[in-house]
Specification:
Elements: H1 10-16, E1 19-24, E2 27-31, E3 42-46, E4 52-56, H2 62-68, H3 95-102, H4 106-111, E5 115-119, E6 122-130, E7 136-142, E8 151-153, E9 174-179, H5 181-189, E10 194-197, E11 216-220, H6 225-234, E12 243-246, H7 254-260, H8 265-274, E13 277-278, H9 279-302, H10 307-317, H11 324-335, E14 345-348, H12 355-363, E15 371-374, H13 381-384, E16 392-396, H14 405-417, E17 419-428, E18 431-440, E19 443-449, H15 456-459, E20 463-466, H16 471-486, H17 488-491, H18 497-507, E21 513-514, H19 518-524, H20 532-549, E22 562-563, H21 566-583, H22 590-603, H23 626-633, H24 637-650, E23 653-655, E24 666-668, H25 682-692
Parallel strand pairs: 9-10, 9-11, 11-12, 14-19, 14-20, 15-16, 16-19, 21-22
Antiparallel strand pairs: 1-2, 2-3, 3-4, 5-6, 6-7, 7-8, 12-13, 17-18, 23-24
């Protein structure tokens, strides 16, 4: 671990205090100590000037990371020669000094295997960590009572709980988890069952196995960042439902409570345990406070009858112009993260049409915890990444991140199964070993792309949201850019406080929704395609999301669930009716219909555009070019080509040119379908619903 001398490179000192350190091509990876990390998400590198570069892909700040390992930001820099910072006190720490400071008898400490050694020429207190059989697993050396750092691990040792060898002596079914050795030793001195954690950020989920037989696990929550960090680590732990939190009023930990009045310690400790609250009580208490604070900040917004329109209005004020449907649907789509099956979407448009800008602008209204955005990822990154995906959206810009078959498979598994279970084989110190990688969902996907045709297996799992490439939208964008260039207020950072407060409130509010007209809706949707089995679930979840968003104005049933109104259906139908119809090929986008009509006009055929191609007897068919279609549609060639490719892919146009690289020779293909509607009108649904009551 950390070496006690003046010649250490900063990176050596950092690596010595991290867990699961692995050397990679450009540096090292390790478990991030600032958040619960099961797969290494911390990247460490050394700059040419000796600085330590750190990046947590879980979003932790560098200041929090170094603080979690007892360092400061200045420790990441190489000190000038002659001014190098010493990281230990010059005097060290003797066993007698430690005994006196903690009021723990030397004989008792020695019974625990604690002794005094010389470390780098100074005295240090050696504390062995033993397993259940009394074998030394690791060793920590305490070199000061209040220096930086106070404690060092023996080189090569991995952190583990302190006191495993004593678990077999406990006949009761309760135990207390505390931070550090001295608190555990204090409780042991008074014959109280305890297990020490070597730091607030050290808890590993695998350690729950040591506590299986204990029905009640007390956790001493220290009143500092470390205490909050420990709670974050335990939040998803298997022991959570058996956990009771002890809070010592006016004292940091058990050792400090003991030192304040040794004679009254046992009485004070029993009183603290009697006042302990269960994890559920603690969480409800915290959530209640947080919910009230969030409600105060977003009350007027949450009570609005049409929050989606307010989102559009707010974006317009920020010069995010046009694309009202895309904005509303993206925002509503992000609300489905609270459900068991988030609704996934793909935003399609030509390059430079602004699809990524619309997505980024909508994400600004959400907390960072709502999504994880990438512009690209490696073939197996989704399996190996430690970034949490549960109840979040994975946002992939420009579709570049889904170029491989294996990537597509992982995404489909995450969307369909709600998790990833990927077994692989890895090289270890004992040879090749199987490893099961699990990524917990549910997770939604937002994908932006310029491609016309998606992977067929992905296409059925995504609602397609088009972004306009029309000259009218281009004009609106130009005017917005001109306004933004001259408006200093718009160029300043927007105030998103009330919008983020709304999301904070929603995250702690009710997510269960009852749709009383669900059966009536199902009976009115024609079963014209197998894909509707997925799309109908997406429709229902969008209705639920709209009800969740407007729950301040919705009634509750006897179970406390939000009751969806017909208004929730009306809004969702307005947003996705044509998209669902296009997905099951009961209609085509207006852009495709206009493109086919442009080819018809260019070919100067007398037949209507919904007919098949017509050619003259003994004559070459009359064809249309890309340039002719672009002119008819008032579009640039690239946008026209994209629409043509979409129509070709759907079979409504044909290209008679057989030689690659030659200009297209376009004629009509399959007949265009009529404008069939899949989703009933709100009036039709109301009538059916009333009839079935």
């Amino acid at each position: 671990m950390t070496r006690v001398n003046d010649g250490d490179r900063p990176v050596e000192r950092v690596l010595a205090l991290l867990e699961n350190v692995r050397e990679v091509e450009n540096g090292w990876t390790a478990l991030c100590p600032a958040h619960p990390d099961s797969n290494p998400s911390l990247s460490i590198a050394e700059a040419e000037d000796g600085r330590v570069l750190m990046k947590c892909f879980g979003g932790c700040e560098t200041r929090d990371i170094v603080g979690a390992i007892g360092m400061t930001l200045s420790d990441l820099y190489r000190q000038p020669k002659g001014k190098r910072k010493r990281i230990v006190s010059t005097s060290g720490l003797t066993l007698e000094e430690y005994s006196k400071a903690k009021r723990l008898p030397i004989e008792f400490l020695q019974e625990l295997g604690i002794g005094q050694i010389q470390l780098g020429g100074i005295p240090a207190v050696r504390m062995p960590y033993l397993d259940e059989n009394g074998t030394v697993l690791a060793t920590r050396m305490r070199i000061s009572m209040d220096g930086n750092p106070k404690i060092l691990w023996k080189t090569g040792d991995d952190p583990c709980p302190y006191g495993l060898w004593r678990l077999g002596d406990y006949s009761g079914r309760t135990i207390t988890l505390v931070e550090g050795e001295s608190c555990a030793q204090t409780l042991w001195l008074h014959n109280l069952p305890a297990l020490g954690l070597p730091g607030a950020a050290s808890w590993q989920q695998s350690w729950a196995q040591y506590l299986e037989r204990f029905k009640r696990i007390y956790v001493l929550k220290e009143p500092d960042d470390g205490g909050e960090m420990l709670l974050r680590r335990l939040r998803d732990s298997p022991i959570r439902d058996r956990t009771f939190l002890i809070r010592l009023r006016g004292f940091k930990d058990a050792s400090e409570l003991f030192l304040s009045n040794p004679d009254e310690f046992e009485t004070s400790w029993k009183e603290a345990k009697r006042s302990a609250v269960s994890w559920r009580e603690f969480e409800n208490e915290e959530n209640s406070v947080a919910r009230k604070m969030a409600w105060k900040a977003c009350r007027d917004l949450a009570r609005s009858e049409d929050i989606l329109s307010l989102v559009v209005e707010d974006m317009e004020k920020r010069n995010v112009t046009g694309e009202s449907r895309a904005k509303k649907l993206l925002y509503l789509n992000l609300i489905t993260r609270f459900l068991d099956r988030p609704v996934s979407v793909v935003v399609t448009a030509p390059s430079s049409a602004g699809k990524s800008f619309v997505v980024e602008s909508t994400l600004a209204y959400m907390p960072e915890s709502a999504c994880y955005a990438l512009t690209a990822m490696s073939e197996k990154a989704l399996a190996y990444s430690s970034e949490p995906l549960k109840n979040r959206f994975l946002v992939l810009y420009e579709g570049a991140a889904l170029s491989g078959e294996f990537q597509n498979y992982l995404v489909r598994s995450l969307l369909s199964e709600g998790c990833i279970r990927y077994e692989t084989v890895e090289k270890t110190d004992v040879g090749m070993q199987a490893r099961l990688i699990e990524r917990e969902g549910p997770t939604g996907l937002i994908l932006t792309t310029t491609v016309v045709t998606l992977h067929p297996e992905n296409a059925t799992r995504l609602l397609c949201i088009p972004v306009s490439d029309s000259p009218a939208q281009t004009q609106r964008v130009l005017l917005a850019l001109a306004k933004s260039a001259n408006d200093t207020k718009q160029n300043s950072s927007p105030d998103m406080e009330r919008w983020h407060a709304l999301q904070d409130w929603l995250s702690l509010a009710e997510h269960r929704v009852y749709i009383p007209y669900a059966d009536a809706l199902a009976s009115l949707i024609p079963p014209v395609a197998v894909r509707l089995r997925r799309d109908f679930g997406a429709i229902l979840n969008l209705i639920k999301a709209h009800a969740i968003l407007h729950q301040a104005n919705r009634a509750r049933d006897d179970e406390g669930r939000i009751v969806a109104e017909l208004e929730d259906y009306r809004v969702v139908r307005e947003l996705v009716n044509d998209l669902v119809s296009q997905g099951v090929e009961q209609t085509v986008p207006t852009t495709v219909r206009a493109t086919v009509n442009a080819v018809f006009q260019a070919c100067q055929l007398d037949a209507p555009p919904d007919s098949r191609p017509v050619s003259r007897l003994n004559a070459e068919p009359i064809t249309a070019s890309v340039a002719q279609v672009a002119k008819a549609l008032s579009l640039e060639r690239s946008s026209a080509s994209r629409r043509i490719n979409q129509a070709l892919g759907l079979g409504y146009l044909k290209n008679l040119e057989t030689k690659e690289g030659r200009p297209l020779r376009l004629v009509l293909g399959d007949s265009l379908p009529g404008e069939r509607t899949i989703m009933p009108t709100p009036e039709e649904l109301r009538g059916k619903w009333k009839a079935t009551k």
